[in-house]
UniProtKB/TrEMBL annotation:
Family (UniProt): Belongs to the TRAFAC class myosin-kinesin ATPase superfamily. Kinesin family.
Domain Kinesin motor: 1-209
Classification of source organism: Eukaryota, Metazoa, Ecdysozoa, Arthropoda, Chelicerata
Record GO biological process: microtubule-based movement
Alphabetized SMART domains for the sequence: KISc
Record-given protein name: Kinesin motor domain-containing protein
Pfam family, one: Kinesin
Any Gene Ontology CC annotation: microtubule
Ranges for region Disordered: 134-154
MF GO annotations: ATP binding; ATP hydrolysis activity; microtubule binding; microtubule motor activity
UniProt keywords, alphabetically: ATP-binding, Cytoplasm, Cytoskeleton, Nucleotide-binding
Lineage: superkingdom: Eukaryota
Keyword Zinc listed: no
Amino acid sequence: MVLIDRRFWSLRGMHVKVQELVEYSIATYKELAAIIERALVNRAVHATSTRRETKYGNLVLRLRLDQRRKMHNKELCRSSTITIIEAAGSELATLAEDPDSNDQWALAAKQFNESLLALEGCLRAWAAQSEKNEATTVSEEENQNTQITGVSKPSKARVPFEDSVLTKLLQKALGLNAYVYMIATIAPEDTSYRTTLRTLQFAEVAKVGVVTVKRNEIFFNDLQKDLKTDIEASKKKLESLQKEERSDDVKKSVEVTKALIKEYEKRMARLKEPLNERMQATELFIQSITSTFGEEGDKKRLPHLSNLSMDPMASDRILHFVFNGDVTVGNDKDNTAVLVGPGIEPIHAVLSRAPSGNIQIEPVSRTAKLLINGHTISKRTELKNNDRILFGSRHVYVYRNPKEEPRTVHFADEPDINYWSAFEEIISNNGIVFSTDNTLEAGVLNRRMLEVLPQIGEANVMAEELEKDVKYDVQLVTPEMQGRLDGQTEIFVSVFHTRYNQRFEWTLRTFEMRLLAMRKLYRRGEQGQNIDVPECADPFFENTDADVRIGTARLYLQPLMYFVRVRENLEVVNFRGEPVGFVETELVPCNDYGDEYTEEDNVFIDNPSELVGKNLSFLVKIHCCKNLPKGYTAIYCCYALFPGDERVSTERVSGSTDPEFGHERFFSFKPANESLLAQLADSYAAVHVMGRQATVELAVIRANKEQIARQKMQNDLMQQTNALMEGFRINGREVDPTKQSVIVELLLMKKQQARQSQKIENLRRLVQSAEQHRHKRVPTSAIRDLLLVSSAEAAEEVISKLDVYESELSKASSLCSIQ
């Protein structure tokens, strides 16, 4: 039972009564197990007033052991209570900050989060109270022989149990007279870093608290007197309230008082009720459970469907036995097995006994989505033991027939069939191949794919049922395609507007938030409410005026280390590794005032280490883009030199697939250090070409879209996407991430070779000129000046001054002889 949809009242002695929560007297483990099984079923999929399909909830199991005996002619009861809490995880908020008052699911999600905050607040207050008591104890020990006057005892910290129903119910179990243990479950993925950290911080609080336990003893006579007193006091209060004016507050107080009187009288009757009568009530409840869900022994002898859930604790909780008559499955309440959610029809499928004696299943209509072992079924099919069945988009069951010989499970490397293996089978049979690399990154990527693909399928089913012209698909994006040097391949969701022929990319976080809003809108449609919302506010669609990434190019910064000017056309590649055009860029070394260096300035350096401690200034120019795809407007480029830097954007240009930007930005580093040089040597600036898609409606839209999407998905999920700087494949095409880097290296080598060739040519001309003038010796100063120049004109000027150098021979000590 979900506590948030129940009212509660505080009773004497910190007892709390929650409406419709029932206690059962048990005598055997079998009875206890049956009640727990029923509770787990309720928590797994049972409908409540707030959540039609409860997957998570605050599960509270309270087991009280009573020991009764006679003492001084009175009946004494000693009791001990074990309270087990499985707290719900925090619920993701929807797109709206304040949930709709008519959306009970959104209100429930909000109250789940509030109950967790209240529980944490109680633990923190309890820990603070324990620390204060410990400090007080130490102070008393230090001053036990000293008389202290005028000092009051420290007040106890208030523990806010009243902040939620959950904490109010657990008031007696949270440290006041109980031992507290906490087990925290965390996720290893880097995407769950924040929630993992919050969970560990939450658990850290429970370690601080100190408990003081004592016996729980009470005489039944005293308890009966207290209950009589409470009943009389409540009746007097009710009489006085009924005499007052009937305001809303008074009406509420009257209702609460009547409920308290009823509860007190119920407790009094329970004290007087013989134990055998209470046990009979428990037996009737156990029988009702057995008639609905079957006994544990039935699972070993009768064919049945058993549910599979993402949460292993919620798997194999719902059993549908198939032995007498047909079993109908659908969202109609008259069906034998009632399933709700996207893709489930009023009567979805029928299970019956075939003439051969085996159980067979048949979809009722052509539109009913039914998969067996990952294959779509459109006709009557006999079931075999351990067959995996998918109803709609997310209801997974496994067929068990104990009479059949156990056969080999489809997945030999898995000991049991579970939710994930069933969906992996479905995905594999649709042509998607998972990575077989035995690496942590590949394992995380595969698991995330298993989680995301069923959600994408659910979103597509909801979009189709609500007649939304949109299709969702998975998109793998490598770090290189995002302009990053390292990292892991990320999963994006591709959003295709079939009406406008537009495609957008969502991050997983964006998709998860949108999916919550989609479910909310879908539930409103099921309830017959108005679901007409503007397309700009529709969670199924992206804003048609949103900027999209046309593609990314890599601008390598290595030439700046040598003061080399580089102008080139960089290839623009989209998320799928397809070339979509070119962007013309230029790196220009300059002085501190932005004046560009030319070849005549002779600023080229051979060793970048010479830059350490000197100023480094340069210009980044983006001239234009060429051959971009049609259908884009307001095109611009943006880039950041290094990770963490603020992005620089060009002006927007519309009306052309070859936009001219004329962008220029000055950068200066004063001075350059080794860290900067290392970044320039190993990194590149990712130039993202952005734009808006033109909204041109298409006359013909739906031509085999599913087959095209499946083929594109298979192409996008090639497994070499994580090979950084070693080449990878996308769409069957070899993409070399070092291509542009190699071009830059070749450019620098060509520049260096040309300079070395020029120096050799200068020396040759020097020797030739010396021989013509019969100079047998040449000063090293002439050779030094000749090596420093970079042009033929400057070298000719040095050679023409050979006579001047000759006059210095008598003064110079360093000479070079020409034989």
